[in-house]
């Protein structure tokens, strides 16, 4: 499978939509971002992976005021896989209400379905040390 320029643009916009939906509290629209059976892997934060859109929504609501006020995604790199799937790697910057920040790497599997491109798997890796240190 060769990704067209249109596919690359659609996938980049999909990944960018994450911050807009979460920051705007539009959690009822997460099906525009994720497949129904998405696995949202937050084990790097000591949590169990979340399975399904409802679980992702509930986790965001449970965080409440601890959610970042701004999610920013940069440095999107796409790699074609097979069977209508694409691997996406991007950087995330979170801005908290108190002005502190955090950085993560998103490792996504993007799947093309009947409704277009959606994230079917996301692993969130915390960046805690420079130069790839742990």
TrEMBL record:
Q: Which domain of life is it from?
A: Bacteria
SUPFAM superfamilies from the xrefs?
NTF2-like
Q: Entry's InterPro entries?
A: NTF2-like_dom_sf, SnoaL-like
Q: Which Gene3D superfamilies does this UniProt record tie to the protein?
A: 3.10.450.50
Q: Which residues form the SnoaL-like domain?
A: 5-123
Which Pfam family is one of those matched by this entry? SnoaL_4
Listed name of the protein: SnoaL-like domain-containing protein
Q: Which organism is it from?
A: Streptomyces flaveus
């Amino acid at each position: 499978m060769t990704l067209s320029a249109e596919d690359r643009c659609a996938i980049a916009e999909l990944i960018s939509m994450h911050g807009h939906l979460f920051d705007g509290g539009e959690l009822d629209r997460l099906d525009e971002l994720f497949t129904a059976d998405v696995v949202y892997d937050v084990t790097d934060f000591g949590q169990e992976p979340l399975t399904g859109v409802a679980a992702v929504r509930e986790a965001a609501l449970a965080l409440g005021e601890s959610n970042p006020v701004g999610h920013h995604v940069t440095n999107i790199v796409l790699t074609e896989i097979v069977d209508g799937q694409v691997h996406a790697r991007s950087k995330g910057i979170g801005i908290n209400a108190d002005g502190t920040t955090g950085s993560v790497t998103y490792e996504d599997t993007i799947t093309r379905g009947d409704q277009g491109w959606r994230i079917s798997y996301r692993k969130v890796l915390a960046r805690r040390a420079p130069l790839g240190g742990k």
